[in-house]
Amino acid sequence: MLTVKEPRRRNRWAVVTCILAGLAVSCALPASASTVADPDPIFTQARINFQFQLNHRDTGAPNIFFHVSSGTPASVVNMMEQEVIITDQFWSFVRPINHPVEVYLADDSRIADLIAAYEPTLTPQGDAGGWLQDIANRIKKTDGGLFGGGSPAYDRNNHANFMLHVGTPSPDGSGFWTQTPSHEYTHTIQRYLLGSDFGPLYTWEVEGQADYIGANFAGRNSNTAFQSYWAQMLTSIPAPKNGGVWTSIAVESWFKGAANTQARNLGGEVSQINYILGAIAQKYLVAKYKLTGVEHYYADLAGAINACGDGDLATHPQCDGLRHQIFTKNFHMTLESFYKAAANLAASEIKWALKTSLTLSPDLRSYQLTPWSNLHLTVNPDPTVDVPVYAPSYTALNALSQQNPNGSASESPYPPNTPAPNRTCPNNEGGHATLYGGAMTCTNGIWVLDPGQSIGTPSTP
After folding, report:
1. Is 122 strand, coil or helix?
2. How many structural domains comprise the chain?
3. Sign of CA dihedral 44, 50, 53, 57
4. Which among 332, 366, 400 is the end of a domain?
5. 57-84 pLDDT per residue, tens
6. What's the CA gap between 41 and 45, in Å, rounded?
7. Quick check: helix, strand or coil at residue 267?
8. This prediction's pTM
9. Are 94 and 34 in the same domain?
10. Has residue 359 got a pLDDT over 50?
11. Does 226 have pLDDT greater than 80?
12. Which range of residues forms the domain containing residue 428?
């Protein structure tokens, strides 16, 4: 399935750059800058967990092939390449850096050249929906430049791939732009874990994770820079469907509605709400379970691919139960409990963002040098490397789901769609059930064995 990030056009911030020998270089930081406190402990702990993973990345030269449209300014190319390389190193805890990745780069004036080089390499799945031409059309209609990217399915050589484009001069002080390379790269990791099939994922899990990782990369060298961009991002959220503000009730209602997924419209527009509320939800999970725990969850979802199909619950109702079961298995809470916790966090942080955005400069260079200014990373492209296309967990779990399309990705010994220990029991708090002679009670959304009870075998009366 194709996931294309909606290219975001933002107003160019009024910034000051230093010019030397015709080249833009990073300016010195101001002598003083406003600071604000983190909004909550979740914000702080998630940031610590991100920085830990960044500091423990594989610092080798990744197997990346850069395809740069001729004439694209060197400063633009350098930014894109350095950000992609360090993101590849960051994700080495999931996918080793010897896996090939194809990246196509251009400035907006050369988007036709990028498409001419890129489109023939894509599979019909990766080229579906006319998304590349849609980007080209938007660029033509946009004054002052458009930036964004797209990360479709694997190409005809089974290589991960994505594209990036930006107007010139690029808005290097804007987090909305500087988060884009790592955002798009994150989609290749999702595809690696899920066999390029996003059917089991909620849309907010697809785009929210990419936006959360991108935000951290955009402000990775300064917590104040990260605060600034986080506040900008949260205040850019569209209003709730029925108007008003994003209260915890409104956010929780949105998450519950977003759980009723439909088949994705290839090339269609994805609401920015998925990006922003999804990023807040990801931050909550990263703070509680670290990035390794979140990635384990995404890997486990590979076991639901066959049951979820294209993600349309109307035609694949069994997908809903598996999603709940896999979430609870990994995070020890029901999705309903999570929605409530994420909603409280989102409502609080949006209020914080409204105040913070009035205090901090939107130009992240007020608080940090451009993050790539001191990077001199290199790549080691090797087309002959022999590596598995997808994660081992995908291979094993997808094979299991094909054998038992309605069953559990965790190889549950119990029948599918039946109350069983540790399975969810939505909307049945305090309810009772029995399985093979063992009595259970629905407690905090989970079937729990009653004291002294045990599960027998199918032959046990």
Report:
1. strand
2. 2
3. negative
4. 366
5. 999 999 999 999 999 999 999 999 999 9
6. 6
7. coil
8. 0.83
9. yes
10. yes
11. yes
12. 415-461
